[in-house]
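Subgroup meeting minutes
Present: P.N., E.W., G.H.
Scribe: E.W.

1. P.N. recapped why we're keeping a running log of single-chain structure predictions: easier to compare across weeks, and new members can see raw inputs and outputs side by side.
2. G.H. added today's entry (334 aa).
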Amino acid sequence: MFPCNRGSQDPQIVSMNSSSYNYNVSSGLSYRDSLSTAVAKNVIVLALGLTINYINGTLIHTFRKHQVFYVNPRYILFIHLVLNDMIQLTTTISLFVFSYVFYKINTSFCCLIITFAVFTTLNTPLNLAVMAVECYIAICLPLRHAEFCTIKRTYTLIAWIWALSAVSTLPDVFIVVATKPVQLFYSTIFCERDNLFSHPISLKKRDVSYIIYLIIVWLTLFFTYFKIFFAAKEAKEAKEAKSRDGDAKKARNTILLHGFQLLLCMLTYVAHEVIKGLLYWFPKHYAHVVFVSYIMIQMFPRFVSPMVYGLRDKTFRQHLKKYLLCTVRPSIKP
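Output recorded in log:
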């Protein structure tokens, strides 16, 4: 049963009002999806999610099967991005489907899912920034690449990425535990971040942390892009080896794609403003605006990752074709 069949509001739109011990659905907006619309939306989300996760799963399988990948820092960072995206997609799609099927779920379970969703959402731009730096070192400091970009340092950076996301996310959990009544965690709630982490301190901290993330990541991206751009220009003017010039151009294009994907990921930080802007133009289509925003902000950036890094890389593409199309034949031993 979908929520629309129980006479409830569209789960993507409902706002939750909290009192001391009771958490009830507000009766502000009464936008509802019909059964056919609800089914269509869930089918679209599940189809896209399964397709993206199948491609990402194949990328991970390809990575595991060939030693050339897991001894290379660039591929390690890429596969961490892919794995992170799989977790992010799984959690957000689960929340989307739960909102239609169950409408409200246990608060403790909601807190767990929301925490993983926020963790992985924050990880993505940081991972992209680190990949841009690695690309810059490979092109602009090739003789020191092996010194700076070691396997150990790569895994240390990945740990730091998760640590920074934890610093931004876990305080929200602690604030909820400290300020909300115990009964909340045994009740059910419409599972959304703003419903769970609704304390003013959490909201203010979120806005500040988003601004800091935005500034640091974009400055990193601009710095690496322009450094690589000038390196490619100097290589061309000096008429150096074509291979280096080609590598620099390829790296520059990769950084541009970094920026495009990062722009999509950063839409998460301004999602409310994006929705407000769309509603200004389409005020009668609230439910559809929220749904399209979810596809564009949460799902589409995760579809770009395998295209930018997996399919464009010659070495990865060579091995990926066999697994993606299931054409690998087991070796026959005598």
